[in-house]
Fold these 4 entries.
Entry 1:
Amino acid sequence: MSDPLSSTLIQDQNKEGLGNVQDYYTIDAEDKDLVRMIDRKIKSAGKDYEDFKKEGKTNEQYWKKDHLKTITLRWHQSRIIQNIIYMGVETMIPIITSKPAEPMISVASDVMDESDDNSRIFTDLLQKVLLEKYNDPDYPQQELMEMLARHLLLYKIGIPKIIWDDTIDDYLLEYVHPHKMILSSDGHYNADVWAAQYLEKPLNELLDMFPEKKDSIMANLFPGSSVTIENVGNTPVGFWEYNCEDGEYVVWKMEDVVLQKKLNPYIIWNDDKTFNKELNHFSYPKKPVMFLNSQNLGRHIWDDTTPVSQTIPIQDGINLMQRIGIWLIISWAPIQRHEGIRPRIIHLDRISWQNRQIWGVLI
């Protein structure tokens, strides 16, 4: 699903580094049109995003043992919890991530034939390098995959993202918390989904990232005032990173200010700003963001349910039976054995339900 704003392209710069990463080709689209389009899309996804976020928050609450926060318990009622949701999630994650799938390496160039001995040696070595990188102590991929699996079970989607790290002159894979990225709700394939990630940086770091926009940023944040960076440099500033559906371009914006707009920097483009089919691994542009789902009916990019959501009613039942069992023990025990005082007895046929609580009538 291509965006109409990805039209003519101007200006190019190159950044030297591993793989000769292209810094950007600026897209020729009016800033006000980009701002209007991004704001409209974020607003249109609001209701679906809030429902998605609400369910994720509930699942997180049960995972963190905060099951009883919405229940009013009297001082003598049990708060013991047998958290099968936490135990289930943390048992599944090591099983999912302990043995990574072997990477499939293919020869992209016509110069080398996959049946050639040299080609096989090259692909086998590269496969071993990728598997070793999975357990790299400096950038452990297994920990990353564990977090993505946890997000998938709790929030109905896992979101890995490719970034370029200048310090190591290489690509890194990181995770994005699902509640910090708004996704279009009308697509279930990667190429159908736009993604708007909310980011936050101190003002001085934001100005370092986009120095050419310093005046516009300061005018937007402090209209009509003459503040200095020394006084407000640590002020946290929120902004959006928007990736269009087909992965052709990316836009950073803060309020009404477009901080930068450019072609996908992870793609190799021809001099005429068209997609280079020979030098790119894929046959078409792709976003540097991926979406992991597993229990999906095709309505959205995120899952329709998760094992955690399905287990919550069982967890509520276990919590309730735990309170009933302890209450019965206390209720059948004699309070005192002085004359005129008899044991408290609970009649199960006189139990009433209210707000997830159980009330017994003692006689």
Entry 2:
Amino acid sequence: MGLRRSQRISGLALAGCAAAALTLAGCGGGAAGSPVPAPTPTSVGGSLYPAAFLTLEPTYATVMLWTLDYHLLAVFRDVSWADPGPGTAVVGSSLPDPPKALPFAFLETGTRTASLVRVADGESLGVLTLQTPTGLAGSIPGGFALAGDYAQGTALLYLLDLRAAEAAAAPERVWRQAGPAAIPIAVRLDRARPVEVLFSTAADLNFARRGSLQPFGLNSLWLETGETSTRVAPEIAFLGISPDLAWYAVSDPGTSPPQLEIRRYDGSASIVFPPTSGSRALGRAVFSPEGRFVAWPVSLPTEADGSRTLINIAATSGGVPLSLTPEQLSSNGQPPIERAVPVAWLDEQTLLLQVDLEGQPQVVRIRSDGSGMQMAGQGVFLSLVYR
């Protein structure tokens, strides 16, 4: 385990979008195409519902904290890492006051080494040197991070308490085994204490981009006893898990065209959705807070020997998914969306999408029926922040 010298991160709390000099398009209302703040959902309740989310603006090496109605709460400057996106950042608490005190961790990849970096009160501290990071997952609500590493043919998992004081923030190694790399999936809490960690394995160790590392299978490790069990066979692609860890999504690579299957973690139910005609690959599935809906991208080939992506949205009770093209999302004179991938749900009716809009990474929100697209944030989506 190696430590990096700490670095001060400038955190700036903002009221609304008053200091949005870093944004690529305006905040608030007024300009053509600017977002109209949506009302706070009336069904919100409990720790499974987010209060905000983080994005990274790569050009400015800046992490931004956004409210659910497109207002910028805080900016953390001089924070940058390679290949940002889901699985590279974890938030360590509920939304604090002031928001610039938000603790979070991220995977930072340098030219020769990688680090698990902890940010608290604007201070950046490298707490663990990694050889080949395989991902980062967290607990819901926040508080704990599970980091994966692969070193000399050995899979490693580390648990980090993001609530602890800096002196007590050393990660605990909870898993070490020769064999395929372990990909962190989730941390289960019981009375605010981690009791179980879930992880997948990597069939193809292509680390050119961590986001392309496909998880296979699902394994459980109980922290108190060290007991492990296999929940999903290692030849099955693992695509996502619900915030309450009650549902998860898988796909059998041997099935063509590929089909998404969702299963209850307790084994009480399983639903297979009809395949999309002509599809050749499925992407990461994301579940709504109460597990009523699931969304996932579907890759389709094109005549130009490329691919295009559809977004599928379905109820976990079953039925035919709603399929949306990026072109269908834009309306009322809005700029065309070049790419769209679901990244998270804000509530049971509101889905966040990572999109390319006029050549820039942006985050937009749509309703579960595919309507009502609005701007939600700038940059690359990283992580939800819970209440």
Entry 3:
Amino acid sequence: MKRILFLFMILTLSLVAQEIRVLEENLAEVKFDRFTGKTVIGSSKHYLSKMVRLAYERPILVCALEYSGKIPKSELNVTIQIVFLSFNKDWQYLERHDLYYLKDGEPFKLPAAAHKGKVMSGGVRETVLINIDFGTLRELCEAETLEFKIRLTEFILREIELDMLASIMQLFEIEAAKK
């Protein structure tokens, strides 16, 4: 019994250390807009500065969770948008931007994706967006691996992208605890 308790304590300490590490990496941030009265917990400038160069190789994951007020009232009153951002010489996903996921190797259903794009000097910036609920975000954060496919291009999310999602979830829980 003592051995089981000891192993449980080790596991708990390891999970707490991992949560602290994820928050210390500053991959997500909380911003309150006093003009609109809305709070956004989203990918941080630090995260984006690390990832933006990778968006020329393949789409990168960006996420934002929004709610009214400084403190969230419940998980039901949040809007969450998952965005895949890429920079290309020409349009890759303008006409076809179907999005498919594998969570830990198994198909995972998400809502239909939308596309936005902008012509820039030397190429285009494309975003493929989906809106999800809090339960779906929680499921994504529980995954060991997340793979996605846009059009014919397949990717595995990097550890930093998974950590960014976990950071958003953790910051939401911290904000919600301030009630």
Entry 4:
Amino acid sequence: MIRGFDGWQIPRRRRDALPLASLLPYLMCGRAANFEPLHLLDDGALGFALEFDAPVVDTGIAAEDATSDLIDQTLRTLPAGVYWQWFARSTSFVEPQLALYMTQAGGDPIARACTTHYVQRWRAAQRDGFFPEDHAINFFPRSQSILVALKSPPLRVPRARLDMLFHDTDRADTVVLGFIEAASNLQAAMSAQGIHTTAVGADHLANWVADLLFPWPCFDHPPVSTGLHSVPQNVASLGRNHPV
């Protein structure tokens, strides 16, 4: 006979009740040794990330080989102890592309009217698809991007002094300098291949994580701004993810 079976679930319930935002490892974002943006992580390491549009490899000539060579070359530049992760993201949110399209409507009244109509249709399709009344043929706009995140070895700095790292921006130890060199090499390798990258700062990171956790609200709320708050605090302010 099993007694108190319900009690076995208490630790799991408490764990599941934690908001996901509280598990995010980002403490603060700043500048060190005249390089930014760097992210201080809760395990005493540094992080750096770049985001760029996914390369078109299915129609470009030798595009797959070029992308493979890029990954190989940049991987070889990473110093010992520096790790990276690649995150491929696909979303129906295409508002930045639509905003750019609106700036190219032209001066002709008919062209502007057509542009406005197309943009309205695409904006509605982000959430509902182009043919929401017919699920057999319905499809959504699609935007794809890749985020490459680097992580340094733990810094040789007492945890109580980690927050001072971004205050003394001209001095840094060998771990920090080696990591900054790795981040700079990654940027240079991408640029050499004609890939436009965006360094991920605090606001960018907060919105990137928030859109992953809350994909539908991204159509309704303006981009979040961290200000004086941390990335986890801003993500937590958008809502709560309930366990499935």
